[in-house]
Amino acid sequence: MAYYIIYDFETTGRSARFDQILQAGFVCFDENLNEVKRLNLKSRINSDIVPSFGALKVNKLLISELLEEKKSSYYMLKELNNFLSFYKPSIFLGYNSINFDEEFLRQALWEFFKYPYVTSTQENKRGDVLNLVTMAHAFNPKAINVEKNDEGRLIFKLESLASVNNFKVENSHEAISDVLATKDLLRLVKNNEPTIFKNFFQNTNKLSLVKKIVENGLFTVHGYFFSKHFIYLATNLFEHPVYNNYFLAFDLKYDPEDIVFLETEQLKDIYYTKKFNGKNFNCFKKLKLNKQPSILEASYSINLSPYKQIGYDEINKRRKKLCNEGFLNNLKKILISESESYENVYEYEEETIYSENLIFQDKIIMDDFEKVDWIDKWKFATKFKDPRLQYFAAKHIYRNYPETLPENVFRRIHQKISDRFNSMKKEKFTTIPSAMEEADNFSFEFENKVVSDFQKKQLEQYNVYINFLNDYYNNPNATPIKFDKELSTKLFY
Question: At 220, which helix (H) or strand (E)?
Answer without folding.
Answer: strand 219-225
